[in-house]
Amino acid sequence: MKLRSKLLALSLLTLLLPWSAWKLLQELEGFLREAQEETLMASARTMVGAIPVGFQTQLLFLPRPYLPIRPLDRPPALDGYYNDWPDAGQGLDFESADGELTARVLAGSHRGSLYLFMEVRSGAPGRIRLVTRDPRGLFSYTIDPQAPGPLQLSSERGGAGQMEGFWQDRQAAEFGPGYNVELALPLAARDTTIAFVVEGLDAVSGRVARSAGTIDDGDQPGWIGLVPPWDDVSEWLERSAVSSSRAWLVDPDGWVLADSGVPADNAAAGTQK
Fold it and tell me: Which helix (H) or strand (E) holds 208?
């Protein structure tokens, strides 16, 4: 072989070596990733099989429909904005029959007090009828302000104290034009269920043109259970989770019911897996 050919072959070999090493690293990474996934899946199956009977009963008897109560770090400023609400885009959604009106509701709690946030997409004027139920009885409110701004309402049925809130018109947003309503209810978050309907009004006649929610045309409420954080299940997950990993208990609808929290190895750095 001529010297020129030998040099060319050596050059090609030199170029191929980094490529071969890169391909080897790729295959090794894929193998390690698959092994890690299989290990985590096996751990998850083991944890599912070991869930205590009491927690399984909680899962079995979850109310339908239900809305998780989000723990709030502080009482939200009643201004119609999401600033104080974690994971604001995740709520329980309802839609009118013609799809022209959509309502999303979130529930939160701070020191036992109940807060609601309603986001309504509608191009027409509207009002909200809200009914709550707790061990003291039934309480109902009609939210129909003349203009955006602060709200102060007393129950039309029973004396539960005054509900405060804020109505904020929304011209354009990801959810569409409409309005936000943020409420502080004079009720404890635990042992409370709610029912509501958002009514879109005809601009000319003022009659109800469409509605979305859980109160039917005969004013019969369809109750939504409010489910507080499952702290006992979260503590069990924290004790049972694989080291350096994070575990969630998620229902079929995608709601996170319990969370093991930040892995101990990452707690100091404030990172999450």
Answer: strand 208-213
Locate 76 and state its tokens: 């939200």
Residues 221-253 have pLDDT tens digits of 999 999 988 888 888 888 877 677 788 888 777
pTM of the model: 0.76
Closest of 65, 181, 77 to residue 129, by C-alpha? 181
Q: In which region does residue 158 sit, left (phi positive, over 0), alpha (psi from -120 to 50) or beta (all else)? A: left
Q: Is the pLDDT of residue 265 over 50?
A: no
How many Cα atoms occupy the beta-carbon half-sphere of 20 within 13 Å?
Answer: 6
Q: What share of the chain is helix, strand, coil (3-state, %, to 5)?
A: 25, 35, 40
**Quick one: DSSP state of residue 221?**
B
Q: Label residue 247 exposed, middle or buried (CB < 10 Å: 0-12, 13-18, 19+).
A: buried
